[in-house]
Design a protein that fits this description.
Number of helices of chain A: 8
CATH superfamily of the largest domain in chain A: Winged helix-like DNA-binding domain superfamily/Winged helix DNA-binding domain
CATH architecture of the largest domain in chain A: Orthogonal Bundle
Distance between the termini of chain A: 37 Å
Number of strands of chain A: 2
Strand content of chain A: 5-15%
Strand order of the largest sheet of chain A: 1-2
Radius of gyration of chain A: 25 Å
Largest interface: A-B, 70 and 71 residues
Structural class of chain A: mainly alpha
Order of helices and strands of chain A: HHHEEHHHHH
CATH class of the largest domain in chain A: Mainly Alpha
Number of domains of chain A: 2
Oligomer: homodimer
Amino acid sequence: MPVRRKVGNLLGLAVLTVLVDRPMHPYEMATVIRARGKDQDMEIKWGSLYRVVQNLERHGFVEAAGSERAGARPERTVYRLTPTGRAELEDWARDLVAVPEPEHPRFEAGLSVLAILDPDEAAGLLRARAALVERRLAAQRAELAHDRGETPRLFLLEREYDLAVGQAELDWTRALLAELLDGTFPDLPLWRSLHPPPSPPHPGGRDGRHR
Amino acid sequence: MPVRRKVGNLLGLAVLTVLVDRPMHPYEMATVIRARGKDQDMEIKWGSLYRVVQNLERHGFVEAAGSERAGARPERTVYRLTPTGRAELEDWARDLVAVPEPEHPRFEAGLSVLAILDPDEAAGLLRARAALVERRLAAQRAELAHDRGETPRLFLLEREYDLAVGQAELDWTRALLAELLDGTFPDLPLWRSLHPPPSPPHPGGRDGRHR
DNA sequence: CGGGCTATACTCGCAGCGGAGTATTCCGCT
DNA sequence: AGCGGAATACTCCGCTGCGAGTATAGCCCG
């Protein structure tokens, strides 16, 4: 497995990263992370921000660098990256890049239980998904093309990657869908046998229960 | 977003699925899920099993169908799927299949902070990753080919999908790596400027700090 | 026939996550 | 000048997840 991190939340990675440039107070970190669009790259829940910063401090990755107050309002603690924190950031990054870990997208879980749905319904759902994915890809592609003008490619790599993987997903889905629609999919009879039509006119109570 | 589930843990999905066939006690569910290989499809932590079953019961998705004891040993509660539970299972499956959700693989997070590493090191890490991914793909492909003999394709869809996406990831990584190695990657100068060599012979203390 | 190993079948406790809430200030509008 | 809504800047608490631990039963090996 990938090294067990003292602070595992990826929000922590984002925090360490923005602190490389300069010390900040938590709310500002949130703003900067959002501004750089890095909140799109990892599921970030802002409710966890202060908790995560606390944990980073507890483990010596960041430390308070004093506190300021602006006008009224509770004083905000400004945090700075420690050398240990910088090291942790690099180590974490290395780990994320070099060690592939089996991940488990929702779609995979969905496919693993696809057989409990009626095959015709499943085809409809796959078609719907494909349409949505296609639209999202188009939007992402447009946005990426736009940002290329303003941001060096070096900082857009994760978006390129996303696009590549998304496209592969779409292609695979479309291929499966085609097999289902033109009847080439080999297990269709088996699959249908698991889902007897609601009530055939009404012959002698046949009931093809599976198992 | 995808409907908020009362029980969100995917282990719950697996539990509902095995209960379609027949009532079971928790430990048996674990055995069956493992036997069907469905534990490969979702990150399952067995420490959560009893908790998840409890929660499913609390929400009326499963219910105790009595308890048995075998020889000595604490009596095991046998659970059965309720109609609500069956409905939840189908709804959940539909949701997982039809609604694509932006996911956030570890590698994406890694790429988003790649610039903090030295470009040469980054190339090394990408190469290492590519090698590992390639080996895993080969292993998966072999295993899948083997299982094709014993299991209908209908129950192996998620593995096919995994393979397709894994291959896309590998291709993308290799392409990026090639650009880095042959110097085609456009931001290499920028990137290098963020990482001044540890200590150049020792001229007048130049220090190209970024920002 | 006894000693250790593996499989069976759970329980416990706590850290961490995150949804929801809170309080204040600022700004635009009318 | 008064109101409403958005942005700022957090806090709180309950539930979940899960690593670690526990205890017995069966069984294989010498």
